[in-house]
Amino acid sequence: MTTRCVTTGISQSKISVPQIGGSFRSDREFYSRQEGAVDYSASGSVDQILAEADGLLTRIARLEGRLTDEKLHRAREKTESVLAIRCSDDPDTEPLQEAAEKSMRQKQLLYEVHRENRAQVRHAELDGVQSTYAGMVQPHAEKKDAADIESLFRRMESAISRRDSSFEEYRDELYQHFYRVLWRQDFFIIDCFKHLQEEAVDVTDVQTYHALMTEGKNALVRGDIERLRGIWQMYGLQKKRWQRRSVG
């Protein structure tokens, strides 16, 4: 089973499991985004756009199982047109910028679908979180983990019809539980580290990044997973220092 770790420049990191569609939030950040200064000719930008489009398509497919909505259909069309970049051997800057703009429009359409079909969308999201748990997390959950998670599922389900944000708060709390369970698993740490080696996008201190990646590779060769966990935490702290410098 393969996991994929994806970090974002928002307030938290996200760790995604593409084959299931789950997303795990963490405070272990590393990358920063320079808004308004994205180099659309960079291969990293292609990977970023495609990864986001894959995630959006997964969400759209899940929603289509619950409701029929013209905006959802338009979001699918735009997402599939973005994914057509994969068919190009050498996408130039203009199509990439176009794809990024389409991606923003897709997100806006999905937000409108969510706002106009709150209960159906939440049902679909609950299905997805339950699928993530059953397929990825439950086999590794200890007894107390499982009890806490099942309790949160019940609360999440009871909040579907509420007009406040309690449903989303329970969902985020569940993701934190999922993350804590997976953080104890060696395969998860290894897969996340391997992915990070492929995602050197917008790193603000290349020398430090490469030093950490080299140390991580050496730990991986030795089978020293505890050291690999420590390196993950080290670059999380380093990332926060870089962010403070960029703000200052």
Task: Write structural notes for this entry.
- By secondary structure, the protein is mainly alpha-helical.
- It contains nine helices and three strands, in the order βββααααααααα.
- It has helices spanning 43-64, 70-83, 93-116, 118-137, 143-158, 166-183, 186-197, 206-222, 225-247, and strands at residues 4-6, 13-17, 22-26.
- A three-stranded antiparallel β-sheet has the order 1-2-3.
- Strand 2 and strand 3 (22-26) form a beta hairpin.
- It is flat and about 50 Å long.
Task: Note the main attributes of this structure.
three-stranded antiparallel β-sheet, disordered N terminus, mainly alpha, about 65% helix
Question: How do you describe this structure in short?
Answer:
About 65% of the residues lie in helices and about 5% in strands. With about 250 residues, it is mainly α.
